[in-house]
Amino acid sequence: MTRLDEKQIISLFQRIVSNRKHTHEDVETFRIGRKFGVLKTDTLVFSTDVPPGMKLEDVARKSVVACVSDFAAKGVRPLYCLVSISIPRSFSRSHILRLARGFRAASKEFGVRILGGDTNEAKELVISVTMFGVADKIVRRSGAKASDSILVTGRFGRTSAGLEIILGKRKSDKKFASLAKRSVYHAVPRLEFGIDAAKYMTSAMDSSDGLSTTLVEMSAQSKKKFLIVKLPADAALDKFARMNNMNPLSLIFNGGEEYEIVITARQKDVIRIKQIAKKNGVPLTEIGHVQNGSGVFLQGHKAPIRDLGWRHFSN
């Protein structure tokens, strides 16, 4: 029996079901007069997507964050969403109230109105969120040009480290453990930054499947080489990796669930993007630049960075 991974399954469905050529994007778009309708759907499954110790309020929020982060990377403000929730029979009124409060808080936090949805019974908690917005255009994954700078929001590697700490597999000092666990339980999508900075981006993509996945996808769609010269991580991550005999590069590039934005931009626009990041309180790192060629490379390494981020059915 041939086993397919997530990307192969999507390609197979797209080839059979769709009547148009499909380009992988963070969101789907369709014309509404002179504007674009923007749609995104994402599903959270309790057994595969919820770490131990996460409160139900934060589980509900996480299901919304996944869609909001994709809108942020496209520079689009989400307006409305539908929530489909399948609940196990073991859930009490208290469980359901906590989920509802989580959705209410997320709706207020991100300014997204929940119009309705669907409820069903299942053996475990499953939440599907479908989000809608309107835009004049979106920032594509494919627009990088030679000599562009590559930038990322946030710090990478913390979420991978945080999950290892939560699972009790690794040791850490108290301060880093707190930061790392918070990145797992309460991710912060860069919505306002993404909307404000969109006009200066030549390409962008949400990083939640892993930094390596994101860079490889953007490089391939842009048909350009990405050279990484600086790592978007702090000394505390390197200390954690050394303490646990781990490879910090694996934590940085292959973790996933960071919900950050990877950006390319013309060099003359980098200073403006940095100003927008500062205004929004968003950490921003210029990690490299775009060249003619193909593949993603880390300076000083001959072999290209491989796509080793998160992929359902293979991880």
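(the above was protein one; protein two follows)
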Amino acid sequence: MNMKHNGYWIFRIMVLVLIFTGSQLLAQTKYTLAPSSEMKISGGSTLHDWDMTSNAAKGEGMFVMEGNQFKGIKSLKVQMEAETLKSGTRGLDSNAYKALDTKKNKDVSFTLKEITGSGSSYQAKGDFTIAGVTKPASFPVKLTQSGSNLTFEGSFDTKLTNFSIDPPTALLGTVKTHDDIKISFKTIFQPSK
């Protein structure tokens, strides 16, 4: 009888230990994109190089955390209105919006499918949707953690024609946009409130 009673208490203590330590091990936390995040598309033309930048992206994800340490991402999506990309030159912006067909395809987005790595070096795989066309992408990402905020920086080289975009021209075709572009980002995620 006494053995049965001791076994019961040992079992209860083990369950309590598992509950308290298990809740500290891995937790999924919802994070949202901070307004200070930056997305940029860079390219060139027969006249000059150009950059179009946006600070208007929105995004959220379920991050796997162990205490305050980043361990992975369960899900993540970032999107922005294409017309929030600005170069500082109205003509370039107008040609870009026409090439992206922003009247029909309002958003540019990225959906993460997988992230691997550790420390500050990761490899991200996911889908970019630009001008209504979705293509897979794989690229390195650097992670910096400051308190509970997580900053991801990286870039991805691709071509406009991969997204069925004809490289724009200007001045009766004498200025031609190069097909090669670079998508770069510095995204800061913070725990949702």
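Reviewer note on protein two: The mean pLDDT is 88.
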